[in-house]
Amino acid sequence: MALFKIKKERKGMKISTALAVVFLCLVLTAPIIAWSRAEVTRQVAKPTVVVTDANTKKDDFSGYNITVNTDDGGKIVYLFIWQRGINLTWMGMRGRFTFDTPPILQMSKYFANGTLDSSITYMPLYLLQYNDTNNNGLFDFWTRGHHEFMEEMDEDEVEWERIPDRPYKIYPLAPIFHFFEPQYSWNWNVGPLTNKTITVNNTWTYEYSWNVSATVPAFPWLHEYEFGKNRLGWKTTTVNVSFSYHIRLLEKNPEVKYDFNFSDITWANAKNLKLAMMSAVLYYSKEPPIVHVGAKGFQGFTKTEEIEAPRFTISENVTKAIKAFISYNPNATIDGTYTTDVVKTALQPLFLIPVAPVPLLIPDGVYVRGTYPGMEGRRTWRHYVSFAHQLGLPRFNKYVSQDPVIGLTANLLTTTITSFLPGDLLPLRAIVTVAVVATAAFSIYYLGKRRITAPIKTV
Known about the structure:
Distance between the termini: 12 Å
Number of strands: 27
Number of domains: 2
Shape: globular
Structural class: alpha+beta
Radius of gyration: 30 Å
Order of helices and strands: HEEEEEEEEEEEHEEEEEEEEEEEEEEEEH
Strand content: 35-45%
């Protein structure tokens, strides 16, 4: 009787063990089921990447080229440049010269037949210390006679003598400005191009990243208040500059997250000093472009136009469809503290420095002028507009950091992914989950089996 009872209990243990194993497998495999059915359903077409070096003489520039296909049969080309190799006769010398440029980020969209649809170039030009007279967080200026400019202009077109915000220090982000001063010469430290795969809105895609940094000296600019007042007392100071670029190839409207950090700056001796970063925005297209700031539309600029909305856009007046956008965050990290509503932004005419004590010749293609889509002089566009994007930053002791975003309105080419993915697409967490399920199931089964098959002891 006792033996029959023990066998009956063991039969019940077998059923309980089997049910426990099944229950555990269902619980642990739920993430895999959800992942395979919902989390990843599409994949962006793999981009092509080319790295060039102007110092090899075979390449026209040092840069990173990332090309990805769009769903209309065309493509988007991301081009980042920090050096140009140019053959020219310069300062009585003839030959090939390699010049460092500002960090040039260009995004160009091409049609299926290879012709240019549109291109936007974003180029930080200089940092400016100034006293903010009206305390609006921006360096305000206007053109002489309020003349409207659709393209870059020389700085003598600005009505400097009537502008209340006084410039104190300027830091050009193009090394060529110190080309003739060996004691202050500098260049960009450019990190390697890295990439990783990310999942965004059920789409498996790519993110490319790199960093550039430098210690940038100030430049003796004739419009600086301190330099103009007492040139003998002017001293060169420096600021540490770092930019981090992250190209996110999103299926809809791919973007570039553009982080910057400025630190170890020496402030001038003046009240209410602030820092402005001035960047050039160059837009080329087949149709006439319009820059939108909220409900306002601009085809040129006469003065500093503050932006209240979180972004501004560029469209074309034929289709009125948005072609490109730049957004910013009014918050920033200042001396380690995340601070809200401290960054101001504006659009304004693009004036080019320098007015220097000694005239400085800058070859085309090294600064703003001569920077074309694909960095070629061959004209593949009909219309062009350029303007300046100002980010007004507060005074800081150690550092300030922020992260604007630049993007194009386009849809990238994608392919559908089935639930049975190849091994190189399987996320690590899925592999780990499978291992855990198998180990747990085997352990429960093994322990249960040992108890069930143990010899029956009779008294």
